[in-house]
Amino acid sequence: MTVTLYAITVLIWGTSWFAIPFQLGVVPPEVSVAYRFGFAALLLFAWCRFKKLPGGFSLKDHGFLALAGLSLFSINFLLFYYAARDLTTGLIAIVFSIAAVLNILMGAVFFGRRVERRTLFAAGLGLIGISAVFWPELSGFDLGQRTSISLVLCLVATTLFSLGNMISLRNQRVGLAVLPATAWGMAYGALALGLFALLAGKSFLFDFSPRYVVSLIYLELFATLIAFASYLTLLARIGPERAAYATILFPIIALLLSTLFEGYHWTPLALGGVALILLGNAIALIKPARVAVTIS
């Protein structure tokens, strides 16, 4: 089951890179992200009601659910949408991969989790590998004013994502069911973005073009509902350190799709980078077998 959840997270988030650019254009980013999580929250509330899942949370719990919504389902995605105007998805993927290390550090700070050397080593291999894969973009990066601002936005968004992981882990530890908690988090995130859009004078437009509608449906149903539910469940099962390793692996899925549909050409450096990522993935996820020693 754990492997299935991990595979779902990696495969869906890996393909979501191609859907996000279709959201930019007619509809303001603030409104697009609000649509995405607002509609997803409504669907998830309906599912929770159908399945009769427990959803009675205390006022304190709602405070943490709102914090999870702000960090996981609104501000972080809005910042990534802003950054996508000036940065390639490859560079954004490199920055987002830092979440693997941030989750290790934040888990130690907030929950006193022991930092395993092999997990830290695996994260290091992954970061080196992802940098090797996207080296052409990284080496040609021009640190101009707009791009440097976008880079900072990505760093802030990634930090918020990891912080949201910690809040979600707290919520699960106190017994909040994953799906109802996720629905409330998405609702709070969408409401916050909607309010921000109103205050910023953004128009609540809707693009009825097939590219916008199809990408929005995909992001709502798959990248938001299914992938986030899988990832947050995984978070409690294997811990934030190993769960966040998905952020290093899913850009490779995006590259495979790019190879099939966009003519991406693999180089020896890129192949070596993928090998490092897969090796780090194996180290992070596979627990070493315990060898029993019998003393006669």
Could you explain how this protein is built, in words?
By secondary structure, the protein is mostly helical. It has one domain. Helices cover 75% and strands 0% of the residues. The chain has helices at 2-16, 29-50, 59-72, 75-83, 89-96, 99-111, 117-133, 135-139, 145-173, 178-199, 210-243, 246-261, 268-285. α2 (29-50) packs antiparallel against α10 (178-199), α7 (117-133) packs parallel to α12 and α7 packs antiparallel against α13 (268-285). The longest helix has 34 residues, at 210-243. The N and C termini lie far apart (39 Å).
Tags for this model:
mainly alpha; 13 helices; disordered C terminus; 0% strand
Number of helices: 13
Overall pLDDT level? 85
Largest sheet: none
Give the termini separation.
39 Å
Helix and strand run:
HHHHHHHHHHHHH
Shape verdict? globular
Which strand-content bin applies to the residues?
under 5%
| Structure summary, number of beta strands | 0
Structural class: mainly alpha
Gyration radius (Cα, Å) is 19 Å
Which percent range fits the helix content? over 70%
**Overall number of domains:** 1
Which runs of at least 5 residues are low in confidence (pLDDT < 50)? 289-296
Strand and helix map with partners:
Blueprint: H1 2-16, H2 29-50, H3 59-72, H4 75-83, H5 89-96, H6 99-111, H7 117-133, H8 135-139, H9 145-173, H10 178-199, H11 210-243, H12 246-261, H13 268-285
Helix pairs in contact: 1-11, 1-12, 2-10, 2-11, 3-9, 3-10, 4-9, 6-9, 6-11, 7-12, 7-13, 9-11, 12-13
